[in-house]
Design brief:
By secondary structure, the chain is mainly alpha-helical. Helix content is 68%, strand content 7%. The protein folds into two domains: 67 residues; 169 residues, f41 fragment of flagellin, N-terminal domain, CATH 1.20.1330. The chain contains seven helices and six strands. The two termini are 24 Å apart.
Amino acid sequence: MRVSNKTFFDTARFNLANLTDDLNRANMVVSSSNRLLKLSDDPVGLIQVLNMRSSLSNIEQMGRNIALGKSWLASSESAQTNVQNLVSDTKALCVQMASATTGAAQRRSAAKSVENNLEEIVALANTNVNGRHIFAGLETDNTAFTLNADNSVTYNGDNNAFTVKIGRNASVKIGEDGQTVFQPSGAGASDDIFVIMKDLITALQGNDIDGIQTAMTNLDTFFDHNSGQISDVGSKMIRMEIKANVFQDLEISNKERLSEIEEPDIAEAILELKAKEFAYQAALAATAKVLQLSIVNYM
């Protein structure tokens, strides 16, 4: 059967195209360090890669949530610990001012110290992280508390806790409703730290020993509540640390598995590339000789 020159040309072109594709793929495997260039390379492996990348994306988001949570909780713990110290200092001052040997002038002077402590407590209650107030509930853009001219305090947040997701079905409160923290039985109740401080200022200014003693009792009540709040924040911090370690281990495991599926043996990939280059050069040389076999060359 006679084979036409066109058949030679078409066959040579087809073979060279296939070799070019093989060479190009081998080159891309080496240059990208990725053996999965298209779905047909490894359909099962590629599906696993996509699932792991999705999982890694979720892990990264949880990591960001945990970092935010730890930042807020650390600020909350610091603020509430400082409030507790101010309450302790105020109580110590009350003990001195409740003594019968203390005069009215000394009590009026002490009222100024308590006013300063109240201002500090309000400032701590307005603690913010990156401009977001951690004791304003979900109204994080609002200043949580406002200190008025008469030493009363107004809450500007809402009664919802700010939470972050740290797992598929797990969330943690990182920002508190400010009233829960500083006015546990409600605004104006006997354990409202702002009312306690305001009433104490009034008692000191009025030389009211009974009022001072009442304030001491209420300070004790708030102190116990405050201690519980600090303990709760500490337990949340521990939970965050555990979650962070779990997600870190998961991230390492997924990345290692991803590397096993995607990354080629680089030495083997380079040898494959060299073999493809050699085959391509050999095919070019053979094709050049075959295409010279025409009657035109002998005319």
